[in-house]
DNA sequence: ACTAAATAGATTGATATCAATAGAAATGGA
DNA sequence: TCCATTTCTATTGATATCAATCTATTTAGT
């Protein structure tokens, strides 16, 4: 038979070494683990920290803009809010101006958790920032933003 | 009372704008959606494509090195293999040299799926590559690797 | 050979992610 | 006002992710 079509190993190596999607997913997993480990004493994951920090605003935002800011699906946001609500750190209330919508806000306890997490974020971020050359962080942020 | 401690909004904006973890997670989600959409006709997600491509080797690798290459937890790899095994694209066999371990290999059908997916990857990757300035892709890969 | 330590994966439980779909409420046009 | 459309969110089902824990096997020290 021998009618099987194969991709040469050299092509595999090329894809592995160049695929931006793979490189970003890989870095995302590594950074998530790093921040999850660091933030664990505060009781937060990296995603929960980012979400709660994005809720620390003068006015409670609706879900749509928050999901867009985090570049996540709205259904993902709905799910991500559940554990934070259970812990009493986030409040989800009906928007009186538009009863389809919800308004998200931090509770006093939620704000206290963020206060505890902030210095951890600062030191962890400074650590990974130091792994990049001067100006590398800003360059990286711009490159990543260009992909979105 | 007013004993609630708050983080100033300016700090929130600073964290949002500078957090490399958030920027990488955000880009990871956006890129995953982009490649998932593109690869859907081939029946693969971006992660499945990367995993199967990494199995396209002369010798079937054990799980550990594959998980390390993809920077993912070994338990994640175990779970990710399940749907691919069910579809008959990947074979997981006991390593005769070390009966604790497994050897991963693509089936003929799995290789055929990869062949179908490769041109989709190429065009999609060229498209996002074009969003970066000249030399930006290589720079980005190096910056991301420095974080891992 | 025997046994303690190390290693390779699997399982469980919790959260994260998104597509597809459904529901409720607001909006706009007739 | 009425109805079709749009908008905002929730639910379901599938996969992805990791920590904690477990089993089986190999390796190393004796």
UniProtKB/TrEMBL annotation, chains A, B:
PROSITE patterns associated with the record: HTH_MARR_2
N-terminal signal peptide: none
Highest rank taxon of the organism: Bacteria
Domain HTH marR-type: start-end pairs: 17-148
InterPro entries referenced in this protein's UniProt entry, alphabetically: HTH_MarR-typ, MarR/SlyA-like, WH-like_DNA-bd_sf, WH_DNA-bd_sf
The protein, known as: MarR family winged helix-turn-helix transcriptional regulator
């Amino acid at each position: 038979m021998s009618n099987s079509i194969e991709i040469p190993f050299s092509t595999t190596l090329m894809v592995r070494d160049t695929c931006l999607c793979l490189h970003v997913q890989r870095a995302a997993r590594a950074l998530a683990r790093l921040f999850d480990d660091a933030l664990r004493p505060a009781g937060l994951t990296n995603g929960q920290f980012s979400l709660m920090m994005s809720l620390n605003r003068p006015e409670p935002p609706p879900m749509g803009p928050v999901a867009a800011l985090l570049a996540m699906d709205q259904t993902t946001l709905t799910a991500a809010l559940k554990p934070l609500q259970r812990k009493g750190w986030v409040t989800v209330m009906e928007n009186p101006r538009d009863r389809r919508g919800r308004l998200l806000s931090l509770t006093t306890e939620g704000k206290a958790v963020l206060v505890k997490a902030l210095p951890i974020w600062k030191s962890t971020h400074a650590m990974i920032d130091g792994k990049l050359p001067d100006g590398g962080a800003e360059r990286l942020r711009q490159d990543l933003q260009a992909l979105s």
